Amino acid sequence: MEQNVTPEITENPSRAAAKKVFVKTYGCQMNVYDSQRMADALASEGYGPTEHIEDADLVLLNTCHIREKAAEKVYSELGRIRLLKEERAKKGWNTVIGVAGCVAQAEGQEILRRAPVVDLVIGPQTYHRLPDVVQRVKSGEKIVETEHAIEDKFEYLPAPQATIVRKRGVTAFLTVQEGCDKFCTFCVVPYTRGAEVSRAVAQIVAEAERLAASGVREVTLLGQNVNAWHGEGPGGIEWGLGRLLFRLAEIPGLDRLRYTTSHPRDMDDELIAAHRDLPELMPYLHLPVQAGSNRILKAMNRRHTADEYLRLIDRIRVARPDIAMSGDFIVGFPGETEEDFEDTMRIVREVGYAQAFSFKYSPRPGTPGAELSEQVPEEVKGERLHRLQALLHEQQRAFAESLVGSTIELLLEKPGRQSGQLVGRSPWLQPVIVDESAGEIGDIVDVRITKAGSNSLFSEPVSVRPAAAQATLAEGGRF
Ligand code: SAH
Ligand code: SF4
Ligand code: F3S
Description:
The protein is 39% helix and 21% strand. By secondary structure, it is α/β, with parallel strands linked by helices. Helix 16 (338-351) runs parallel beside helix 18.
């Protein structure tokens, strides 16, 4: 992909005719998944992907609205893109600029006003219409497409081709649920992603089978409230996420399953049983609690107490003792006192997180939290975040250190930064570096952890999986 566009046009007119799309993704994993589906939809219209924005005939920003900083990034990027579009225009090349994702959904028409360089704005519910929208833009229209479609976009989005999946690697995301009905008072997601929708079992299984047949060995099921998924199963019977995981575990070649993000209210017995009974379900759970004070949890409309969260984790740990916990935290929600914040520190100490994400509260327009009077000053939020992150960091470090000397299974994912090395993922989602003699990309191998670095673990090979396991994989159509 390191070619220069100009010589390509003169030397190879047929290639020059191929159009290119550059997609930049912000925000959560669902946006990563959506960006891929948009690229797949555009591929059928003759757009090939490019990693070089200056080569792109179509630039798409897939945006995130979760915090103010995330949304503002889009406008500064659009400023740079305006210059790029002007440069390309001097060479006689047209460039279509599109904004997708949660900022598109939340701001719609306003984006065209603030950034006239934009040609199209498209919300997450209408991605299947993207090829048509791009066509219309080319004939001179500016388009804002943010109405929630009545048709099911997943019925219309084309399935990714095996060749494309192979290029993307041995792990994949699969959206099973989208939208949110919970309305936490700080959060924009129910407004940007709409009401909860669950995809049907048959659709999900078909997509997972296609991924497995293209060489994917680990699938992460996605949803804003993934464990609230309740899809239609065979015979019209409604299934829950636990049952779905049991079904997906049967697919040959799919050796690792994960799901994210879960809400504590929706961890039912069947899902906990899946953690107990399914070796394919990785012992890692992202279960955000946001805060440790019951008063703040109530104001956030999380609909559970700190104690209920702790008891839930106890139950999960009984079912799967080696499970590692991950979470999200918000500091400085309106009205949060020093005492409330200490409750957050306490819950973190009680749980012990292997991984966590923590943020300063960012008031979002249109959410109830933004209207509350007792906003916490920025410097107080900053200071609390600092203390919380120090504790979370220490726990993450301790967890990584606790693995040194043990033998774990590693899914080899890609070449390492240094030649002769490969990088894989531990069951607990940590990147692990190993010598390339350990196996091939796509293999699951045993390694012994030798050292914990700041962002990754180091290891030495122990043994490659028995040949029988590799044979099952080949039957799954990997080669
Ligand atoms: N559905 C998930 C969270 C999705 S948003 C859940 O219920 O937990 C991802 C994370 O962003 C949230 O868990 C929260 O920690 C953070 N977040 C959401 N809105 C925020 C805001 N207004 N300010 C700061 N952080 C926020
Ligand atoms: Fe946002 Fe709450 Fe829904 Fe999660 S559960 S997406 S935090 S409203
Ligand atoms: Fe951001 Fe939308 Fe995801 S707001 S976190 S991209 S659901």
